Amino acid sequence: MDTYRLREYAIAHVAKKLSGLSKTGMMKAMYLLQQVYKVPLNYEFSIYTYGPYDVEVLTYTDIAERDGLVRIVQYDLAEGSVGYKIYAKSSKLDDNFPKECTDAIDEIVKNFQDYTARKWELTATIVYVYNAHIMNGTSMDKSTLCNRVYELKPHFDKSDIRTEYDKLERIGFLECPS
After folding, report:
1. Is the dihedral of CA 38, 11, 95, 105 positive or negative?
2. Which ranges constitute the DSSP H helices of the chain?
3. Chain mean pLDDT for the chain
4. Contact at 8 Å (CB) between 85 and 75?
5. Which end of the chain is flanked by fewer CB atoms within 10 Å, N or C?
């Protein structure tokens, strides 16, 4: 399956399993699929206000909607802002979607199905910081990694960062020394 189709179908399958997922949640799910599960989506994520971000995820979400794979619904938030929820149109999903991708999506659903956009942001940021240090050939202990995440995301409580770190380590997303 080519990258174009893989991206579209990954978005559609996540939307099917996590019906009503926000755009922020979709962004972080694609990040975890690529970075943790090594699904070859070929996005180029960088750290952004709400964690790892690549505008291409939003582009491919819109393409998936255009192609009839998902439906994006706008809804009102507080103070006049809007949010978006993504729903699958499962009748058009491809049966040839790679099994390793569906298995990875199932794992994401199992571990993060009840997450809010805020929790997705924290989770993906912890993984991003961890991966950045691995790519740079450096390591860091739990305390240092959590402090680095806090520097990037001071609106999160340090105890929440440590709790999420512990979960990610327990499910095998991180392999840092404690």
Report:
1. positive
2. 3-17, 23-35, 55-66, 99-112, 117-135, 142-152, 158-170
3. 91
4. yes
5. C
